[in-house]
Design goal:
alpha+beta, 2 domains
């Protein structure tokens, strides 16, 4: 029943019915649960298997948000394709002790990782600091950047192409922020957004609940209740933030590409608001599971690159390296 109801999550406003936001968040887990029971009952030759299989079949179109089945497209080397990366770097704090005990060596490994996987022409980061920006500029030679002002870990855009104009989308409440830049791609102006929507702030609680010594009935119930209350507030804040960004996008005189950490799954109303009329690069050219969260809640896809419908999506990749609590995602775009 939960999986069936989750199919309605993208079209039901969580501001009024926040429970559907929870269902959208749980969507990947409910798929695996239903698949498990389908196999379980099939092996026992019980008709119960048909129920799970029928429910899964009813939402087949929703699976494209988390499971990619599209091969990359071949492109002409002469085409001026642009590589774009979206990455919540978490202020590069993990480099203090990952993958080695030497922060200096870790920074070198991170820079090598970026170079090895074809340095993106445009890098949209979230949770960045000014020292992070200076490091990225010096080690990867980005001549242009813009960043959401302030001391905290904020969004930024780094580019090898000139930035003609830039600004911010201010949110009324909640954490998170949004910066935009009109980037001149050899005469064609494209507006890029780097977005970080309000966090659920439930990862620490989730990690605690996962630990064996904390799985006690009373603690678990209280922990889950606390997580639901936080998510209820967070999804409403994200809805207001998403509306502001969408309105700003619609006023853009140039084609738009939006990158960022939405803190919501593809089966959410927030994703539906921002992706309407856009191309999701994972759905266009993604292969395999679209997981972008590197924490203890498996299967979550909360990072996206959405492109103007006129753009040709050549490829989409997810690099599962734990330099952050998110995986970097990249796409190759060809602007007509």
């Amino acid at each position: 029943m939960g999986l069936l109801l989750s199919y309605f999550a993208p079209v039901i406003n969580p501001y009024k019915y926040w429970q559907f936001g929870i269902l959208g968040l749980m969507f990947p887990f409910m798929i695996f649960i239903n698949l498990f029971f389908s196999v379980f009952w099939l092996l026992r030759k019980r008709w119960f298997a048909l129920i799970s299989l029928l429910v899964i079949a009813m939402g087949w179109n929703a699976f494209s948000g988390i499971i990619g089945l599209k091969l990359p497209q071949s492109s002409d080397p002469d085409d001026k394709a642009i590589r774009v990366m979206s990455y919540n770097i978490r202020a590069l704090s993990k480099l203090a002790n990952y993958p080695t005990k030497s922060p200096k060596e870790n920074k070198e490994k991170f820079a090598f990782f970026m170079e090895e996987n074809k340095l993106p022409h445009i890098l949209c980061v979230q949770e960045s600091t000014m020292p992070n920006i200076k490091f990225l500029q010096s080690s990867m030679a980005y001549p242009y950047y813009c960043r959401y002002p302030g001391y905290n870990s904020n969004t930024a855009i780094l580019s090898v192409f000139p930035i003609d104009n830039s600004g911010v989308v201010k949110f009324d409440k909640g954490n998170g922020d949004c910066v935009w830049a009109d980037i001149n791609l050899d005469g064609k102006i494209i507006r890029f957004y780097s977005v970080h929507l309000h966090s659920n702030t439930i990862s620490i609680q989730a990690d605690t609940l996962i630990k064996i010594d904390n799985i006690e009935k009373n603690k678990t119930i209280k922990g889950v209740e606390g997580m639901f209350q936080k998510y209820k507030f967070a999804t409403r804040v994200r809805y207001e933030q998403a509306k502001k960004i969408k309105k700003h996008m619609e006023s853009s005189p140039n084609p738009v590409v939006i990158c960022g950490d939405f803190n919501d799954t593809p089966q959410s109303f927030i994703y539906h608001v921002l992706s309407e009329g856009m191309k999701d690069t994972f759905k266009e050219r993604g292969i395999g599971f679209g997981t972008t969260w590197a924490g203890n809640l498996p299967g979550l896809k909360i990072d996206y690159i959405l492109a103007d419908p006129s753009v040709n999506v050549i490829s989409h990749d997810i690099y599962r390296r734990q330099f952050s609590d998110h995986y970097p995602i990249t796409t190759t775009l060809l602007f007509q």
